[in-house]
Amino acid sequence: EKAGFDHFMMKEIHEQPKAYRDTMGSRIDASGSKVVLDEIKMTEEQIGSIRNVHIVACGTAYHAGLVGKNIIEKLARIPVEVDVASEYRYRSPIITPNTLVVVVSQSGETADTLAALREAKRCGARVVAITNVVGSSVAREADDVIVTWAGPEIAVASTKAYTSQLIAFYLFGLYLAQTLGTQEAGYIAGVVAELKQLPDKVERILGQAETFKDWAEQVASHENLFFIGRGLDYAVALEGSLKLKEISYIHSEAYAAGELKHGTLALIEDGIPVIALATQEELLEKTVSNIKEVKARGAHVFGLHAEGETELVKAVDQVFSIPHTLPLLSPALSVVPLQLLAYYASLARGNDVDKPRNLAKSVTVE
Ligand code: M6R
């Protein structure tokens, strides 16, 4: 049942290229230049009336939502807020009939996410669900459903569900842009072409998994570490940090790289591992200067950058190149090394990788 892998998590990490292909599937037209989302029943007029978007989810699905905000704002130019479902419910969010609420849930059964969906509907908003389970509560109660075709996810630590949620957001963002006319057809076709190349690029990263076994063995003896990044790299850093905490039990914090000097830099001391994500070309220089700040205080820095870049090499102790893609799409690649790092760190510490302590796969209580 684990298809030759030692753990479900590793099997599921390796199923990501297939999950990407299946989630894109027939949602890209035959010419490969635009997105077809027949499951969205919203009319053009309804889409045109959207004034703001609220993305609501928990845990890893919330982290997918943080990337989703960037995607929708960039492609469709609609303002987006992202909330943790257990906060959203109780903060009296301003929801109007022109608000589109997007709930994200692998299981479709998370209690807080379901309650947020109900609150949104009560206020007259239209709800789109991104879920991996056809027929789940969230799928049944939403107005529109985008199913992620990741297949069953057994390991408590979510991997392929997260990345297929990202693919769903790319498709949805492109669909909104097409409908609203916020991006030119040529630009959309270019993004679609790059999307289709992601599965092969994930396979290339998986072929280099040993690198992250090595990194994991170096960090496994530490009790604290940091993930830093800017923009989309920060969103991915949050997910990498959660993954590591969840299964290796190493405490880590994800920080917006530019925010370190406002307090957290005080925690950087000799030998502390820092995972620096620097895949966003236009932010590279700024991130490098933040890396220098932690290096100067003795941190051991592991860097992730886009293939072809050279600037990071001198600034860090060890570096890994992510296959080149559009900066907007890089989260769908850069998270994979962090999943592998968490997996091998958990293994190195002798933990139960698939069933971490204190946690359940589906959180159906508040
Ligand atoms: O089924 P859901 O997507 O609604 O679950 C949300 C979270 O409980 C879940 O993503 C959790 O954070 C994962 N165990 C993280 O790996």
Automatic annotation (TrEMBL):
Residues 43-182, 215-356 form the SIS domain. One of its GO terms (biological process) is carbohydrate metabolic process. It is found in: Cytoplasm. GO terms for molecular function: carbohydrate derivative binding; glutamine-fructose-6-phosphate transaminase (isomerizing) activity. It catalyses: D-fructose 6-phosphate + L-glutamine = D-glucosamine 6-phosphate + L-glutamate. GO terms for cellular component: cytosol. Keywords: Aminotransferase, Cytoplasm, Glutamine amidotransferase, Repeat, Transferase. Its main location: cytoplasm. The active site is at residue 361. Its EC number is 2.6.1.16. Catalyzes the first step in hexosamine metabolism, converting fructose-6P into glucosamine-6P using glutamine as a nitrogen source. Homodimer. This is Glutamine--fructose-6-phosphate aminotransferase [isomerizing]. It comes from Paenibacillus piri. The chain holds residues 244 to 609 of 609 of the full protein.
